[in-house]
Amino acid sequence: MNPTDRTERELREALEALADGVRPAPDAYRTARGDWLRRERRRRLVLAVLIAVVFALATLIGLWVLNRAPSDRGVVFSSTAAPAHPTSLTRPHP
């Protein structure tokens, strides 16, 4: 008999004897499932809070930027400048 085969056989027998003595707790599945559901709820709550914070920050930054814009009308809305194509936005009259 090969020494490796003997070692494997003895190890297998020892592990089988150890496995025969292991009994799961009666509520092991329920406990594991409850832990998993708690972690899943916490993960979803953290994600929802993170999304709300990012949305609120984006809104606040957008409002801040709009508030800091100059209050004068600017060149785009100036009535003194002549339009580039005077007939481009007017409707023809019959």
Low-confidence stretches: none
Rg computed from alpha carbons, rounded to a whole number of angstroms: 37 Å
The structural class is mainly alpha
What is the count of helical runs? Answer: 2
Helix content: 55-70%
Write the H/E string, N to C: HH
**Beta-strand percentage?**
under 5%
The whole-number mean of residue pLDDT values reads 84
Distance between the termini: 111 Å
What characteristic shape results from the CA principal axes?
A: rod-shaped
Quick one: biggest sheet? none
Can you count the beta strands?
0
In words, what does this structure look like?
By secondary structure, the protein is an all-alpha fold. It has a domain at 27-58. 63% of the residues lie in helices and 0% in strands. It is built from two helices and no strands. It has helices spanning 3-20, 28-68. The protein is rod-shaped, with a radius of gyration of 37 Å.
Question: In summary, what is this structure?
Answer:
The chain is an all-alpha fold and 94 residues long. It contains two helices and no strands. The longest helix is centred in the middle third of the chain and has 41 residues.
What's the SSE blueprint?
Blueprint: H1 3-20, H2 28-68
What attributes characterize this protein structure?
mainly alpha; 2 helices; transmembrane; transmembrane helix; membrane; DUF3040 domain-containing protein
